[in-house]
User: What shape does this take?
Amino acid sequence: MEKKKILLFYPPGPMFQRGEDRCQQNVDEGSAQAMRACNDLGYAAAVLLKRGYDIKLRDFQTELCSNEQMYKEIDEYRPDLIMLSTTNTTVFDDIKLINDLKDKFGPVTVLKGAIFYDPEQAMLDLLDLSHTDYMIGGEVDFAIGEIADFALKGEGRIEEVDNILYRDEDGTFRRTKFHVWGEDLDSQPFPAREYMNNALYTRPDTDDPMATIQTARGCPSQCVFCLTPGISGKCVRFRSPENVMQELTECYEKFGIRDFFFKADTFTINADWVEKLCTMIIESPLYGKIRFTANSRVNPLKKETLEIMKKAGCFMVAFGFESGSDEILKKIRKGATVEQNLQAAKWCHEVGLPFWGFFVIGFPWETKEHIMQTKKLIHRADPDFIEITIALPYYGTPLYDTCKEEGLLAENVLGSDFFHSSMTGTKYLSMDEVVKLRRSILLGFYLRPVYIFRKMGECITHPSVFFNYCKYGIKLVVNLFRK
Ligand code: SF4
Assistant: This one.
C-alpha cells in the first residue's frame, strides 16, 4: 500500500523562532539572533517516520523561499496531511494560508503552536479556524503520531491524545486533557536531521552549523510573562546525560555538526546533572571537537557549574536577567535579585565565559526610574551581548491578566511580538516612551567605543567573525533607527 504523505513546514515570510514555545522571537528584528533549528518539525518527522509515513519537511521561511515555490512543491507532493508550526505573531497569516491550502489540495490540516495550549475560547473566536482540523498546543512529539494515525488510518482514539483540540463530528472543537506531560523523554526519537537542512541554522558569530539539542523540558519558576510553566510544566523533566551524549555523537558523526545549543528552559538548574553531562563530554572522543551554548537562570547557579561547562566546550551562556530593579524582579516573580544577577555576571567574568544578558522592559509597574536601573545593571554586569525585549502579555500568562485588569492591553493581543508589544504602555509610560528607552539603552551599550574596540580586538584574527559582528551591528542600528 502506498504510504500516506505528510508535509511538516514553516511557511515563507518573516523569520520567527517557530520551534520555540516561550521565545517565539522575531529574528529579523533581534539584536544578534540567528534562526535556530526547526526541531519541532524534526521531532514530528522522527515520530511519523517510525509509524511508516512518507515525510516532507520544509522550512520555507529560513530558506527564503517564495510563496510560488511553496505552492509548486505542495502541488507536486500532494500531501495527505499538513502541519504548520505557527506563532502568536504570525497566526493570522498562517491560518489564511492553511485555509487556502485546504481549499486547493484538501489535506488534513494541523496547526501546531503554543497559542493553542488550553486556549481561551475568546481568543479562538478571533481566528478563522473553519479549515483547521487539529490544533496541537503541547509537545508535538507526543501528539502528531496519534493524530496522523487517527486522521489517515482511522486508528486510535483521538480523545485520548493529550494537549490538542480536534473537530468533533458535529463540527465543533473539543479539547482533550491539558496540563499533562510526557515523562519519558529518553524514549522519544531524536529529531530527524536527515530531513532538515542543517546548514541553515548557524552560530551568529562564526556561521558554523549549530544543532539544537533539547536536554530538558519544564521550569519550576513562575515568571509572570513566561509560557513555559504552563505549557511545559513546573516540574523539570530531564533527559539522561547518556541519551544527550548519543544525540551529540550522532550529530557530530552523521552530520558533521560541531556546535550546539542545549535547549532547556534553565539548563543549569540541576548542577549535578550538568556536571555529569560535562564530565561525559570531557571524557569522550568529542572533547575539544564540539562547542555549546545554553540558557541559565542566575539562581540556582554555582561558579563550579560555569567552570565545568567552559571546560567541556561552552562558548556562551545566556541569562534572563530581566530587570535591574528588585521591586520589578519581585513583581514579575523572577525569584532572583539584582545582587544575584551581578553575582552570575561576576562569575562569568572570572571564569572567562562570555555571556548574553536578556532584559525586559515595559512591565505594567515600570517607571522611567525602574528602566534606568536596568540600564545601570547592564553596564555593571557588562555582558558580551544584550537583548532588550518589551514585555509581551501572552494569553494564559499572569502578565496578561494584570494587563487586562489595568486596562493596558492593545486592541488585539495576537499579531504582536517582543518588539511590537500588545500593551499600550506601562501604568506610567506610553509605549512610545518604552520603545525610545529601549533604543537609547541598546545604542548606549553597543556603541561604546571601549566595547567596539574590545569586540573587534577579540575577532581581529577571525575575519568571518569580524564580518558577522559588523553585519549584526549594522542591522541593529538600522532596525533601531527605522523605528
Ligand atoms: S526562569 Fe522564568 S523565564 Fe525562564 S523558563 Fe522559567 S519561568 Fe520562564
The pocket of iron/sulfur cluster is lined by residues 22, 219, 221, 223, 226, 228-229, 265-266, 297, 320 (CB under 6 Å). The chain has a mean pLDDT of 94. The chain has two domains: 5-175, 202-446.
